Amino acid sequence: MSITTIESKKTALTEQWKELLQSRPNLRIRDAAAAIGVSEAELLATKTGGDVIRLQGPWPDLLVGFKNLKHVMVLTRNEACVLEHKGPFQKIDIVGSGAHSMATVIGPIESRVFFQSWHIAFAVREEKSDRVLQSIQIFDKAGEAIMKVYVQDKSNEAAYKEIVETFRAPEQSADLGLTPWKEETYNENPDTEAFLNEWAELKDTHDFFGMLRRHKVHRYRAIELANGRFTYPVDAQQSPQKILDEAAATKLPIMIFAGNRGHIQIHQGKVRTIRVFERGENECQRWLNVLDPEFNMHLRMDLVDKAWVVKKPTSEGDVTSVELFDKERNLVAQFFGLRKPGIPEREAWRALVDSLGTVNS
């Protein structure tokens, strides 16, 4: 794409965004991008050369650099679920190298990182009424947000500036080289008996992903195949709120997983303040929220279509989760009882899951 074409597109997107904000001043960039018909990264890139600085890898080095920021807010989302945690990056372990490297982040910020999906990053400065927000935002090759790290009052701002200068890309172009994701090919008619027999022999929950890959089975299809043996459906609209309300009332520690292709964020611990809000200009959006000081969850219930209880055998006994899916059968979020390696699942969590009942799939 020529420089003239890139600049012409940048100007056109800038004007469209400006027009949208005139009629809808509180419109978030993600929603503005959807309204215009481009990715969030493309819209953000219209500000390169000003309040947006394009960054480059190596991505594992950028992630490790986040430890120097101290207390931050980390946001990860998919279409239906947002998780936000405040705290420091404490322990970061890089696993593997090259295209398929990943990382585990342990501590107040807990996550799993898949670098093969990291494509572009920006340092972003935003003016919001009486304050200025500074963040580092990571996007995949389709221009969808993977993770956003926001500077807080207790953050190390000098470390933030150092990261921006260290990873600043030589070319501050708005041409991002984006490409649509290609859907993976799955086996729609796997050997069900062999698949379920292998499921029965699982020793660790992490082995589940390898099993799906070996049999080339989509996660949702796997749950359907195991219906009545390792899985069963529950009410998709009532179950998430019942889990959160009961966990808050009884102070039962739980785990919540949510994310996207490049980043899975994890909450571990108790939840306290559960609220439901409805909003939306052209459609009714029903949000189930956790609003705690260091952790927020925003789950858009009108996009949750199915919920399943899933049991995975391990060497310490079964591990039970409640998994939420949207209408396209994408995984939205997972709920677990908090447990540590070598310790069986809490009976209180199993009793809570049992109380959800079952519905027809």
Task: Summarize the entry for a quick read.
The chain has 361 residues and is α+β, with helices and mostly antiparallel strands. The chain contains ten helices and 18 strands. The chain has two domains: 3-96 and 118-167, HemS/ChuS/ChuX like domains (Heme iron utilization protein-like fold, 3-Layer(aba) Sandwich), CATH 3.40.1570; 192-354, 3-Layer(aba) Sandwich (Heme iron utilization protein-like fold).
Radius of gyration: 21 Å
- Main β-sheet: number of strands, strand sense, barrel status? 9 strands, antiparallel
Ranges with pLDDT <50 over ≥5 residues?
none
How much of the sequence lies in strands comes to 25-35%
Strand order of the largest sheet: 1-7-8-9-2-3-15-14-13
What count of helical segments does DSSP give?
Answer: 10
- Tally the structural domains: 2
**End-to-end CA span:** 48 Å
Note the overall shape: globular
Describe the structure.
The chain has a 9-stranded antiparallel sheet with strand order 1-7-8-9-2-3-15-14-13. Strands 4-5-6-12-11-18-17-16-10 form a 9-stranded antiparallel sheet, with helices on both faces. It has helices at 3-23, 29-36, 40-44, 59-65, 157-167, 192-200, 207-215, 219-225, 239-250, 347-354; strands spanning 52-55, 70-77, 81-87, 91-95, 102-106, 110-114, 120-128, 131-139, 145-155, 231-234, 254-259, 263-269, 274-279, 285-291, 295-300, 306-312, 319-325, 331-337. The termini are far apart. By secondary structure, it is α+β, with helices and mostly antiparallel strands. 33% of the residues are buried. The chain is globular and about 60 Å long. The protein is built from 10 helices and 18 strands. The protein folds into 2 domains: 3-96 and 118-167, HemS/ChuS/ChuX like domains (Heme iron utilization protein-like fold, 3-Layer(aba) Sandwich), CATH 3.40.1570; 192-354, Heme iron utilization protein-like fold.
